[in-house]
Amino acid sequence: MALCGIGWSPSVESVEVVYFNGNLSTRLIRQSPMRLTGKHSYLNQRQYWGVRCSSASKAVSPMESEENARSALLGSMEEELEHVTRFKISDFKILDCVSTGLGGRADELIFEAIVKDTKSPLYNTRVVLRRHNSAQAQRRGKRAIEVLKKLVHRRLMYHSYSMQVHGYIFSPTSSGRCSFTLVHGYHGSFSLRHWLQQSDWLPTLEATLVLDEESVRRVGDDTVGGPAVTRQLRLIRLLMRDLLIGVNYLHSHGLAHTELRLENVHISPVDRHIKVGILGNAADFYEKDPNSSALDNNLDRRLMMIAFDMRCVGFMMAKMVLRELMDPLIFTRFKSFLTKGKDPSCLREFLLKILSRNSPSGNTGFQILDRNSGAGWNLLSLLLATKPSKRISCLDALRHPFLCGPRWRVVPSMDIIRWGLGSTAVRITEEYIYGQPQRSRLAHFIELMEMLNPHSKPKNWLELLPGKWRLLYCTGRHIGLTLRQPPARVLISDVHLNVSRASKLNTNLSFTSNIGFTVMSGRDWPHAKTGTDGNLQVDSLFRLTAGRRLYLKEENTTGRFTPGPSNIQDSLAKKFSGRKWRKAIPFKEFPSSLPVAKLASGDIEVIMGLGNPLTQDIDAARNVVQEVRTQLPPEMFDLSKFVCGTYVDSRLLVLRGVNGSALLFTRSCVDESSR
């Protein structure tokens, strides 16, 4: 840079002009009138020059000017970073290892060192030196020190849940550039991602966290037949609770981490706490711009930043529980499911088709999330909610049943109760053991879901009902093959009900029943489930109106008419009076009616497609259709037999037929092209 035409008033004793990193700054040592004129041109932005002008007529050499500028710059740095220690590189013994697990970037150089200064309180302590090479990296390092200054009044809390920042090394180099190195705590070379990628990660982490012998004995060990699922669930609860406490500490002090991921989280073997990474990218909730100091803007900014952090926590939880998501390809499909706007409450239905094939962990993650009536899936869906306003906060997540366990008793909300009822019903259907006890239990759960239906008005159904639903269960008919000898051996695949809406102004809905099946021929059909594929499609239009479902009692009827479901209602009334359901069900007695969404059907169109050679044999095709109709509920063939909808949410649907049977559906979010 060329600096010329400098002029000053004689009354000014000292004027200091410093050019550093592309910024021209002027410091007045004494306040007095001054006139400064000049122009400059940039020859090399990486160099900085200092010119000291004083009233004395003594000439200043370039070497002295450079040294003075360095001293002034270091003095200003010490004023800004006075709450931490300034070290010298000679205070450390550099070790011959680079910490690859500390989340370094391309513009950072990370290596380990030991403090050898005997006067330092950190003498003989291992630390990490994070050298920031670029200007952007240096801003991150200084930002980490600024965050420490904001949280210094609760230093113990900060040190418990975040990497401790000891100080910095700041010195100009011979090339004219300034070197800034951050000195922070060492908590091992492994991040949480490195821990989870180890083959023996579970016993190693248990040993690192120094879990007491009583808890290990109570849970058991894999070598003696102990449940591995329980061990992993306990460990994930410890890690998640520690992580949420640390993130909540930042949020309560007006900061968002913005870089929460497994690579930036470490486990300290000293205090056995999770340490979130260096807070170099921590953002303030409140903007510093005086023109945007409106309360609404600050509130929106705060909610968006908290929601972003909670989404990152959700990704971390998903990877900790479902270790298959460590694979970048599978995680990309997982993220694309969310970025497409799919409801995260349907994650189980989506991942069931992806992770169940040749799973190396034996679906341990599914077992963990399925426990306690699917509480883990509920927490994961709240952390990854599509709308930021719907995401759960740290405090609410700490009170969630999935993280509390049996020792911390929490009162479940009505949403948790509904979720538990639906998840339990889905798990029973997946077991595919439909004896009388299972069928009775499923009928009870469906009745309870209908009583707790959160969306009883037709306007809510118009928003939630459109989509693709997969048939799970029918209370009126056993779905699938039985012990009888059919004329045609037909294996039913997925049965879907597609609901679409022509426009938002129209209340008419289009229902399409898609039934896929395989006709097995030959003697080896019990072992080889192959054959001719077929498809049956039924279309109909429906009009949605409000209605009510009446519960008729036997004493209110006359003659020989006796309603079939009365025994179910009587047994439900007895269950409601018990202690288990007294707090869950908001009714003191069994209601006489419930609001429902009434379905009025129009014309029906049936289309069937069969492959060769069934198309050449009319009798064989007739037998196939008859067998398909025998195995499936009649409502899927004659859509006009659907009378009303009694339960709907983002993932489950219950429709009632004219004969009183209930059909349970789950929302299907599987991408057919990705199979």
From TrEMBL:
UniProt keyword Transit peptide, yes or no: yes
Domain of life: Eukaryota
GO MF, one example: ATP binding
Keywords linked to the UniProt accession: Plastid, Transit peptide
All residue ranges annotated as the Protein kinase domain in the record: 92-403
Main location: plastid
SMART domains documented for this protein: S_TKc
InterPro entries for the chain: Kinase-like_dom_sf, PAP/fibrillin_dom, Prot_kinase_dom
Subcellular location field: Plastid
SUPFAM superfamilies in the record: Protein kinase-like (PK-like)
Keyword Transit peptide carried by entry: yes
GO terms for cellular component: plastid
Annotated family: Belongs to the PAP/fibrillin family.
Protein name: Protein kinase domain-containing protein
